[in-house]
Design brief:
Blueprint: H1 7-30, H2 32-71, H3 85-140, H4 147-179, E1 187-190, H5 191-209, E2 212-216, E3 222-225, H6 227-243, E4 250-257, E5 261-268, H7 299-309, E6 312-318, E7 324-331
Parallel strand pairs: 2-4
Antiparallel strand pairs: 1-3, 4-5, 5-7, 6-7
Helix pairs in contact: 1-2, 2-3, 3-4, 4-7, 5-6, 6-7
C-alpha cells in the first residue's frame, strides 16, 4: 500500500507497533482478560489513528495536485472542501498566494502590452523625422540644386535633427523615471529665477510670434526642489502653452507661497483645452485634436513625472476667460 511506503508513516507505524506490543505483553502478564482488552484497544486506536492520518494525507495529496495545476497555468483553485484545522489554514494561505500571483501575472501582462505599445509609438515618432531627413539628404545631393533651396533644406534638416535629439533625450529621461534611477538634488531655489531660465529657450520663438510673457512672482519667493529638473518641467509647460496660443497672445506665470504649499500657475490666452482631452493631457504619447503637427505627446507627461517625483502635484483646467491653466503645487512638510 502506497500510504505505508511513506517514510514518516512507516516510522510512526514501527514505533507504535513496538509500544503496542510492549503494552499488550505487559497486560497479558497481568492476566488474559487484561491482555485481550489491551490488544483490542491498541488495534482500535491504531485503526482510528491511521484512518484519520490516511484521510489527512489524501487531502494533502489533493492539495498538492491543485497547486500543481496553478503552476501549469490553471489559476482556478478548488479549496472549499478542506475544512480541517491545519489544512484549512494552509489552503487559505495558498488561496491568498494564488490570488496574489494572479494579480502579479495580470500586471506583468499589462506592463508587457504597455511596453509593446510604447516601443511602437517610439519607433513611429523617430521614424517620421528620419524619413524626412532621408528625403532632404537626397534633395541636397542633387548637383543642380540652387543656393536658395539648398539653404532652405539645410535649415529644415537641422530642425529635424534637433527634434530627433530632443525626442531621444526626453525618452531617455522618462525611462530613468520608469526605472526609478532619478535622484533629486533638492535645494532652496528662487522661483522667479527658475521661471526666467525656463522661459529663455522659448523667448525667441515667442518674439517671432508676437507673444508676450509676464512673470508675476515675488522676488524673494523660494521653493525646495531640484532646480534643473523643475526648470525642465516648467519649460515643457511653457512650450506647450506657446504652441497653443495664437500670434499676439500672452503667457502669464504667477507664484504663490503660503503655509501649506508653494504654487506656480502658468496660463495662456489660447483656445483652452478640449473637455475630452483634459483627463488624458498628461498621458504619455497622448495628442489632443488641437495638437501641433510636430507634437509627440511626451513633454507634459515628463513634466508630471518630474513634479510628482518631488512630492508635488500638477493639474490642468480652462480659465474663466478662456485659455489653458496649469497649476503646479509643492506641498510643505507639516511639523
Amino acid at each position: 500500500m502506497g500510504f505505508f511506503r511513506n517514510p514518516e508513516i512507516k516510522k510512526t507505524a514501527i514505533i507504535w507497533g513496538i509500544f503496542s506490543a510492549a503494552a499488550v505483553a505487559a497486560a497479558f502478564g497481568a492476566g488474559r482478560r487484561c491482555g485481550f482488552t489491551a490488544l483490542a484497544l491498541c488495534l482500535a486506536y491504531s485503526a482510528a489513528h491511521f484512518a484519520v492520518t490516511y484521510k489527512r494525507y489524501k487531502h494533502i495529496a489533493k492539495l498538492g495536485a491543485e497547486v500543481d495545476k496553478v503552476l501549469h497555468g490553471d489559476v482556478r483553485l478548488e479549496l472549499s472542501e478542506f475544512d480541517e484545522g491545519e489544512l484549512n489554514i494552509l489552503s487559505n494561505e495558498i488561496h491568498k498566494m494564488t490570488l496574489r500571483l494572479g494579480e502579479q501575472a495580470d500586471r506583468l501582462a499589462a506592463d508587457k502590452e504597455y511596453l509593446a505599445d510604447s516601443i511602437a509609438d517610439i519607433s513611429h515618432q523617430i521614424r517620421t523625422p528620419l524619413t524626412s531627413v532621408s528625403l532632404l539628404t537626397e534633395f541636397l545631393s542633387e548637383p543642380e540644386l540652387d543656393k536658395e533651396r539648398r539653404i532652405k533644406y539645410v535649415k529644415e534638416l537641422f530642425e529635424l535633427l534637433d527634434r530627433i535629439d530632443w525626442l531621444i533625450n526626453t525618452l531617455l529621461k522618462m525611462s530613468k523615471f520608469d526605472a526609478g534611477t532619478v535622484y533629486f538634488d533638492r535645494r532652496e531655489t528662487n522661483v522667479l529665477k527658475l521661471v526666467k531660465r525656463a522661459y529663455e529657450p522659448i523667448a525667441i520663438p515667442m518674439e517671432l510670434r508676437g507673444q508676450c510673457f509676464e512673470a508675476d512672482i515675488p522676488e524673494d519667493m523660494t521653493l525646495d526642489c531640484d532646480a534643473r529638473w523643475t526648470m525642465e518641467a516648467v519649460e515643457n509647460i511653457l512650450k506647450n502653452c506657446m504652441e497653443h496660443t495664437p500670434e499676439g497672445g500672452s503667457l502669464t506665470v504667477k507664484g504663490e507661497d503660503n503655509a501649506v504649499y508653494t504654487s506656480i500657475t502658468i496660463s495662456d490666452t489660447g483656445n483652452g483645452i478640449r473637455r475630452e482631452d483634459l483627463p488624458n493631457i498628461f498621458k504619455r504619447f497622448y495628442k489632443g485634436k488641437d495638437s501641433a503637427s510636430g507634437s509627440v505627446g511626451i513633454g507634459l507627461a515628463l513634466s508630471r513625472m518630474i513634479i510628482s517625483g518631488q512630492g508635488g502635484s500638477i493639474k490642468a483646467y480652462n480659465g474663466r476667460n478662456g485659455g489653458a491653466v496649469f497649476e503646479i503645487k509643492f506641498y510643505k512638510s507639516v511639523v
